[in-house]
Structure formats: C-alpha cells, structure tokens
Design brief:
Order of helices and strands: HHHHHHH
Shape: flat
Number of helices: 7
Number of domains: 1
Length: 184
C-alpha cells in the first residue's frame, strides 16, 4: 500500500517539476524567442500597436489578431543584416522618444487618430529622400515594421484562404472549355 502512495507522490513531483519552468517566466520578457535582437515586453507591445495601427481590426481580423508583431520580430531577427537590426533597435528608441516628445505619453496611450498622424508623418518623410526631419534609423525601423506587417498579412493563412482564394497549380481541370478552330 505504501508503494502506490510513493509512486503517486513521485508522479506529482515530476509533473510539477516539468511545469515549473513555464510558471517562472521572467516578467517583461518578449513572448517570442529571438537570437540576434533583445526585445522586452514593452517593445513588443509597441510593435504590436504599430502593426495594429497599420492594419486595424474591422470586419476582418487586425494585425494583433493575426499576431503579425511576432512575425515582424522574427523576420527582423532572422532575415535582416546586423546593421539593419542595430538600426531597428536604435530607431525603436528614437520612435519612443519622438512620441513622448510630441504627445507627452507613450504610443500605447495615444488614441487611434494620434497614432495614425504619427505614422503618416514618418511615412511622408520616408518617401522624400531629401528630407531630414527624422533620423535614418527611425525611417529604417518604420520601413521594417510596415513592410513586414504588410508582408505577414498578405501571406497569412487568413488572407490566403478568406480574402484571396488561393488555388494550387495547375488548377482545376475544365473539360468543357471552348476551343476555337484555327485555319490550317
């Protein structure tokens, strides 16, 4: 009888030890594992808010619903050069400082209209190569976030199955397709 109790207690201890690391996650750490850039939870939220401003939720899912901010972070971490990754991190700091300077609050605390105005101003400046209103690192940060957000949305399962009906090559066989006779 004591053997069964010991085995049951041992199973509970092993199960608890297996779950313990997931319960001990550091607060403030990003939810996606990255190798080359170090992001905290606030920075991840900033990118999520930017992505949601770029592709807001309407009758279709928004960027946060599709977790595009995680896609952006993973793509920057895996596919960008070291210089672009450094510019991304520097630009993120500059973006945070710019928003605080203009609105006296963080990007997350701004309403939708203010967020759109900030991003549209950067986008307008980004398109003018002679403009020096914003630093190049900030423009690189914005370009990466916007480009990867749009890329992630247009390649997402939702978009490819619900918005654009994707058909595998070679497509359907239509036995009744009209054929014109050619003169010989």
């Amino acid at each position: 009888m004591h053997r069964r109790t010991a085995i049951k207690n041992l199973a509970l201890i092993i199960g608890g030890a297996a779950l313990l690391p997931s319960c001990m996650q550091e607060k403030g750490k990003a939810s996606v594992a990255l190798k080359n850039i170090i992001i905290d939870a606030d920075q991840e939220k900033l990118i999520g808010d930017m992505a949601e401003t770029i592709i807001p939720k309407t009758d279709t899912p928004g960027a946060k619903d599709l977790q595009l901010h995680l896609f952006v972070l993973k793509m920057v971490d895996d596919c960008c050069t070291k210089k672009d990754q450094q510019d991304f991190m520097t630009g993120m700091g500059q973006f945070t400082d710019l928003v605080k300077k203009q609105n006296n609050r963080s990007f997350a605390e701004c309403d939708q209209k203010q967020r759109e105005q900030i991003l549209l101003a950067i986008d307008k400046d980004r398109k003018d190569p002679k403009s020096t209103t914003y630093p190049p690192e900030l423009k690189t940060f914005y370009n990466l976030v916007k480009g990867q957000t749009v890329n992630g949305y247009t390649t997402s399962k939702y978009f490819m199955t619900k918005q654009v009906v994707y058909e595998l090559v070679p497509g359907r066989y239509n036995a009744f397709y009209p054929v014109k006779k050619q003169a010989v």
